[in-house]
Amino acid sequence: MDYTASEMMMVAAARALKNDDVCLVGIGMPSAACNLARLTHAPNITLIYESGTIGAKPYVLPLSIGDPELCETALTTVSVPEMFAYWLQGGRITVGFLAAAQIDRFGNINTTVIGEYSKPKVRLPGGGGAPEIASSCDQVFVIVSHSPRAFVPKVDFVTSFGFGTGGNHRQRLGLTTMGPSLIVTDLCLMRPHPQTKELLVTSVHPSVTREEIAIRTGWPVQFAGDLAHTDPPTAGELAVLRDLLNRSGQAGGMGPS
Amino acid sequence: MPRFLALTDAIAEYVHNGDTVAMEGFTHLIPFTAGHEVIRQGRRNLTLVRMTPDLIYDQLIGMGCARKLIFSWGGNPGVGSLHRLRDAVENGWPQPLELEEHSHAGIATAYAAGAAGLPLAILRGYVGTDLPGVNPNIRFIEDPFTGVRLAAIPSLRPDVSIVHAQRADRAGNVLLEGIVGVQKEAVLAATRAVVTVEEVVDDLRVASSNSVVLPSWTIDAIVEAPGGARPSYAHGYYRRDNAFYTQWDAISREHETFLAWMNENVLRKSSSPSPPIRGRRKG
């Protein structure tokens, strides 16, 4: 069955979520992946959007983090201060699912500026909820298209802390959460090395070569010894994903890219 | 009891040049109509506070109303950049814009601290990030009881907060429902509070004893402004105009198209409220 690299990425991301996860969902591709999981193998997953909606079950993917679709389908909607205090900092979220403009070899994320902060080449939107999502959720999944512009040796600005300079940097800062444990791209899956915390390629998507991954990664990327091969999307996964994106696009939400 | 005023009078009286102004609403209930009146009255040197600047602050910044922005996420949600915000930061057009940048958790906590009358907000935040390096208002303190290191930022105490809500009753009590964001905290933290509402009614129709209600004595002025949150939305009244959020990307990209749109749709419009366009009505 034919599928795009983007579809492979969203399917691979969805598969990483479990039925009992409580997931804080970023807008865009994270939202697509999390709802695909909910509509396939994880029907009881709790999806939380930082606008305060807990247990949202959107029929169409929202364009923004606070579309009415989220509030109307949620178990409950809390205020934004409560969301960040009780639910996020209170440690009640198992997975934070983020996107990134830049991510580096130690999983630090930049969504703030390209270039110098005081004289940016490109001013990006900024951190939003991500800095504390990255530190307070049990673990963090990141979904990002694989390019040398995105996968840089060192981010221009640490918006959301991953593993810093590697090793036990998180522990030294007093962080007790796991940090970015999975990076999903359109080429592969990456996970941190158990000791150094450098991101390693752990699974390669179908018909992708090691050379292609190396060319599109901005540092000399390492491959895990027990490198796996990602299963292609099933017909069922693709049907649910395409239906979700089509009806969302028709409704003015996030549509097929 | 708040005063029921026309929009022009409420903005003229309560929003002054140089004020710190918070117009809140987390995607929902964004006070666009009030923001447009601030633009029409030509306020200058404002310090604008908002978690998600959204299109309304893109417009205020592009029209030269702002000197400084205190914020945590400055994009067009689901679409891309706020081009007027970027142009001010990257190129100083129409004037330079000082940034005080936080995370959502930081600003939300700072409003709550302001509402509580506290001088500072504390949170488990900003750990390992570069934000404290560029924002001297993010510091770290030690909990005197446990020794745990926590982030501290000054509480937010706007001179004036402006929010939009579904309804007010004739006594001036205000109801918000749906995604309620930080509006309650922003109103209680501010020295002055102006609320625009979809309608003024005899019966507030409070759905639950736990609904978000702002008692009349927490508000200075109420303005009836049907459709006052468009192109964002008012839960129970009308939907978010996602198509306009997408179109704003092209409108705002160049000075000429931006200024032409503002001239046509804001500057030349009277401040009298446009008739409401009722969408799917709930409750």
Structure overview:
Chain A has helices at 5-15, 29-39, 68-73, 80-89, 130-136, 169-172, 210-215, 235-250, and strands spanning 22-25, 46-49, 53-54, 76-77, 95-98, 102-104, 109-110, 113-115, 120-123, 139-143, 151-152, 180-184, 188-192, 199-204, 222-229. By secondary structure, chain A is of the alpha/beta class. Chain A has a single domain (5-250), classed as Glutaconate Coenzyme A-transferase (3-Layer(aba) Sandwich). The longest helix of chain A is centred in the last third of the chain and has 16 residues, at 235-250. The mean pLDDT of chain A is 96. Chain B is built from 9 helices and 15 strands. Chain B has one domain (3-102, 157-267): 3-Layer(aba) Sandwich (Glutaconate Coenzyme A-transferase), CATH 3.40.1080. In chain B, helix 3 links the parallel strand 3 and strand 4 (66-71). In chain B, helix 3 packs across helix 4 (83-91) and helix 5 (104-115) crosses helix 7. At the A-B interface, helix 3, helix 4, strand 9 and helix 5 of A face helix 4, helix 5 and helix 8 of B. Chain B: This is CoA transferase subunit A. Chain B: Keywords: Transferase. Chain B: It holds the Pfam family CoA_trans. Chain B: Belongs to the 3-oxoacid CoA-transferase subunit B family.
CATH class of chain A: Alpha Beta
* Rounded Rg of chain A: 17 Å
Write the CATH architecture name of chain B: 3-Layer(aba) Sandwich
Task: Specify which chain pair forms the largest interface.
Answer: A-B, 56 and 56 residues
Described by its quaternary structure, the protein is heterodimer
Q: How many separate structural domains of chain A?
A: 1
Specify the CATH architecture of chain A: 3-Layer(aba) Sandwich
CATH class of chain B, anyone? Alpha Beta
Mean pLDDT of chain A: 96
Q: What is the element string of chain A, with H for helices and E for strands?
A: HEHEEHEHEEEEEHEEHEEEHEH
SSE string of chain B: EHEHEHEEEHEHEHEEEEHEEEHH
**Helix count of chain A, per DSSP?**
8
- Looking at this structure, what is the CATH superfamily of chain B? Glutaconate Coenzyme A-transferase
Q: What is the CATH H-level superfamily of chain A?
A: Glutaconate Coenzyme A-transferase
